[in-house]
Amino acid sequence: MSENPGTDVTVDVAPAQADPKPTDIDWKAQARKWEAQAKANKDAADRLASLEESQKSEEQRAAERLADMERRAQEAEAKALRREVAVEFGLSPADAALLDTVSDEAAMRSLAERLRPVADTRVGAVVPGEGGQSSPLPLNGDGLEAALRSKLGIG
To answer: The pTM is what?
Structure first.
């Protein structure tokens, strides 16, 4: 047995085939085609909406107008309430704008209470630190007039 059975093996290898070249697609032309189709669809949708609107009964249109007016009236009442609460609590315009996010009156008043500025306990409006005095002078007082006369050199 001098014969070697595993040595005469032949393998047929086919040459590797290159991937077929993809066909060239004009993407711009395709985009224009789909854009034209979208415009046609929009026109059809507009015609349908117009047709549906024309087929509504007068009662349906009146009901829609009534619902819109009721919604607008509720919004106006809420806005008036927010402004009323802002004035009542003496809020600045920036703080009053925060009330626009709240719809419940109790919550609105609670927020306004927290935002209320600290009351000025001094009598009269003052300009702090003016005149080098330790206590500020009221703007409507005689002490302010005297301080101004002395600074200006008026007797």
So the answer is: 0.40
pLDDT averaged per 10 residues in sequence order, the chain, 155 residues: 54 55 78 94 93 84 92 92 90 86 87 73 50 56 76 78
Residue with tokens 């669809």: 41
**What's the CA angle centered on 74, arms 98 and 52, to 5 degrees?**
120
Distance, in Å, from the CA atom of 79 to the CA atom of 69, rounded to the nearest integer, reads: 15
Q: 3-class secondary structure for the chain?
A: CCCCCCCCCCCCCCCCCCCCCCCCCCHHHHHHHHHHHHHHHHHHHHHHHHHHHHHCCHHHHHHHHHHHHHHHHHHHHHHHHHHHHHHHCCCCHHHHHHHHHCCCHHHHHHHHHHHCCCCCCCCCCECCCHHHCCCCCECCCHHHHHHHHHHHCCC
Under a CB-based contact definition with an 8 Å cutoff, are residues 115 and 95 in contact? yes
